[in-house]
Design a protein that fits this description.
The complex is a heterodimer of chains A (246) and B (316). With 246 residues, chain A is α/β, with parallel strands linked by helices. Helices cover 28% and strands 31% of the residues of chain A. Chain A has helices at residues 37-54, 69-78, 93-106, 126-134, 187-193, 232-242, and strands at residues 3-6, 9-11, 19-20, 25-26, 33-35, 58-64, 82-87, 111-115, 137-148, 151-158, 161-167, 171-175, 198-201, 210-216, 225-226. Chain A has a nine-stranded mixed beta sheet with strand order 11-10-9-12-8-1-6-7-13, with helices on both faces. Chain A has a two-stranded antiparallel ribbon with strand order 2-5. In chain A, strands 3-4 form a two-stranded antiparallel ribbon. The chains are: A alpha/beta (246), B alpha/beta (316). At the A-B interface, α3, α4, β9, β10 and β11 of A face α2, α3, β7, β9 and β10 of B.
Chain lengths: 246, 316
């Protein structure tokens, strides 16, 4: 069972957000970047578990420039066997999906894993796009995946509950919390990661239809109004008359 | 030319999100010109009601099999978008919409903006649409330059207003792909509004000291018809069900009112809730970081304050 895991680089949750070039580009200066948590904690680890159960190989793929190698090495340290980097700074999620789909067309994989979304743009776009490019089945927001005869039984999160689906490889699956337990790379993994193959592949041409015209910051909150704990009638009045939410 | 809205159905009736989607489609059709058509995959007994929220007509298509399959649904939507000459295809940014919007954008060669919080406006090279990014810390305005656009709308961004009357519902037949996947089962909590769609949310955390103390939270939620939620530690140790967890790795929500009780307000928690319109924080620790993100704060023992708040709401 050979798996491909799509990994992304995102700003750390605590990163200060600012913009440059007339508010048209994210200011990367001084920002620490991490492997997108949904990709790392759930998608990658479940792919490694699957290899431990059934054999095969785990390949990670990233669309990015050489500055992304550090997060790719982290994925190798956690337990991926090899890595592919499509050598371009991704223009958009549609670009990433096209590059990954083209790579999959020329290389066989049973399951394509990715996190349910990145924590910066929260679009949840790439998995569905890859699946459509390849006419594959797609299960999003998977919180559990078990072998089921020749196929799999996957549990996915839906609004206020869950849905259980039976399907067979090949398919695309996006990982939510619960799909696997986070693994911390150990020293042996980190040493081995340095010797694992990281293949750099040139991108295919991409014609985008969407671009960021501008970024802006939300209006500042007015500050907190503290209410006397003995006077909850006052809080109710504020919520009704001032905030108008009740 | 038209706007095609993809509605959602649950147990033979419209999901509340479908009304917001129809209303957004109506507002978009006013900008772009043309009609607002809602596509329902499956049957909903109250389908004609979408006309009230701005649909000019409703088309229903039988998916040919039980349950949701993104590959089949995307094919039905693509064919319907082509036959209705859709300039915009609208989804809700829900578990269903997120599974489909990317697929349909590829199938139609259309630009996609997901989680939109504004109506498309004509711009230099196409249309511009905004969304919240970086966990609510910024807003990005995108320009879509393709002839067709695909948009998924962030829930609770537009309050559906009654703008029309019940409309015609027409069954459409088309030949679509057949499903490879099979739905084995589905379980959802009944009786309450799901968290991503809830307008009022009461959330509690480790300050509750134990799962046996949740009665006061449920009583408070019941008296205003709110949905209950919780912080990550509380879901992780099993005090509350996983689907109640709001925050970065749980559900992201944007209710009108979020009351956080006994939650300190770690940045990962705020990432999932800071798009709430009004935030009330109840915490006995005056240094709790959540107070900085709150509109109203009560610094006291929650076991004293919560029953008092419930009583005040009942008497109001």
């Amino acid at each position: 069972m050979n798996s491909l895991v799509c990994i992304s680089k995102t700003p750390d949750t605590t990163a200060k957000i600012s913009f440059v070039d007339g508010n048209t580009a994210f200011n990367e200066d001084g920002v620490s970047f991490i492997l997108n948590p949904y990709d790392e904690w759930y998608a990658l680890v479940r792919a490694i578990e699957l290899k431990e159960e059934k054999g095969g190989k785990v390949t990670v793929i990233n669309v990015g420039d050489p500055s992304n190698d550090i997060i790719i090495r982290k994925a190798l340290a956690i337990g991926a066997d090899e890595a592919v980097r499509i050598n371009k700074k991704a223009e958009s999620s549609a670009d990433v999906a096209l590059q990954v789909a083209e790579y999959v067309k020329n290389n066989n994989f049973d399951i394509i894993f990715l996190g349910k979304e990145t924590i910066d743009y929260n679009g949840a776009e790439v998995g569905a796009m890859i699946a459509e490019h390849l006419d594959l089945d797609y299960v999003s927001f998977a919180s559990k995946m078990e072998s089921n005869g020749d196929g799999f039984k996957v549990t996915r999160d839906i609004e206020g509950g869950i849905e259980e689906i039976a399907l067979s490889a090949p398919f695309v699956i996006s990982a939510a919390k619960g799909l696997a337990e986070q693994r911390i790379p150990n020293m042996k993994g980190i040493m081995m990661a340095k010797r694992k193959p990281l293949n750099v592949v040139e991108p295919v041409g991409f014609n985008g239809h969407v671009n960021v015209a501008s970024f802006s910051l939300p209006s500042e909150k007015g500050g907190v109004t503290m209410v006397d704990p003995e006077n909850m009638e006052e809080l109710v009045r504020l919520l009704k008359e001032e905030a108008k939410v009740l | 030319m038209s706007v095609l809205v993809v509605g959602e159905i649950s147990n033979g009736s419209l999901r509340a999100a479908s009304k917001e989607a129809a209303y957004y489609g109506h507002l978009t059709a006013q900008k772009l010109g043309g009609e607002c058509t809602v596509l329902l995959i499956g049957e909903a007994q109250d389908a004609s009601e979408l006309g009230v929220y701005g649909a000019n007509k409703v088309l229903t298509v039988d998916p040919g099999s039980e349950g949701f399959d993104s590959r089949v649904y995307a094919d039905i939507i693509k064919q319907t978008a082509q036959s209705t000459d859709a300039k915009a295809v609208i989804f809700m940014h829900s578990s269903t919409g997120k599974s489909l919007a990317g697929r349909v954008s590829v199938a139609l060669g259309a630009g996609l903006v997901s989680g939109a919080t504004s109506i498309p406006e004509a711009s230099t090279n196409g249309y511009s649409v905004s969304k919240s990014v970086f966990s609510g810390k910024a807003i990005a305005t995108y320009e879509i330059t393709s002839p067709t656009m695909v948009i998924s709308v962030m829930g609770n961004s537009f309050k559906p207003e009654a703008v029309g009357a019940a409309c015609e519902v027409t069954a459409n037949t088309l030949s679509a792909k057949t499903a490879n996947t099979q739905i084995l089962g589905r379980s959802t909590q009944s009786g309450t509004v799901p968290l991503p769609e809830a307008e009022l949310v009461i959330s509690a955390g480790r300050g509750m000291k134990g799962p046996e103390n949740w009665g006061i939270i449920e009583e408070l939620a019941d008296c205003i018809g709110a949905t209950t939620a919780c912080s990550r530690p509380v879901a992780d140790i099993g005090w509350r069900p996983h689907h109640e967890h709001v925050g970065q790795t749980g559900v992201a929500i944007r209710p009108n009112l979020y009351i956080a009780i006994g939650i300190s307000g770690a940045i990962q928690h705020l990432a999932g809730v800071n798009n709430s319109k009004v935030i009330v924080v109840i915490n006995k620790d005056p240094e709790a970081p959540f107070f900085k993100a709150a509109d109203y704060g009560v610094c006291a023992d929650l076991f004293d304050v919560v029953p008092r708040l419930t009583a005040a709401l009942k008497n109001a």
